Amino acid sequence: xxxxxxxxxxxxxxxxxxxxxxxxxxxxxxxxxxxxxxxxxxxxxxxxxxxxxxxxxxxxxxxxxxxxxxxxxxxxxxxxxxxxxxxxxxxxxxxxxxxxxx
Length: 102
Hints:
By secondary structure, the chain is mainly beta. The chain has one helix at 13-22; strands at residues 26-33, 39-49, 56-66, 77-82, 90-99.
């Protein structure tokens, strides 16, 4: 007689999806442009150390992010999160406005 071992997996697909959602990249940056409809351009600055000379250099990357309610304005500090492709260039969405521009 064959004995079948019952596979007891306590991990569900819903838990996998929740873990994946929490692993998304987040960046904090400044809104450079809010002229487009439901879209903002966010500049994210970072410091890197020069590999040979050791001097710290400032680098920046620009991301287009989805702003559903057109809430953010130029100069605001915002948090953006990686998401599914929304358009040709938009792969990020606005999570929260950390600080309003003065």
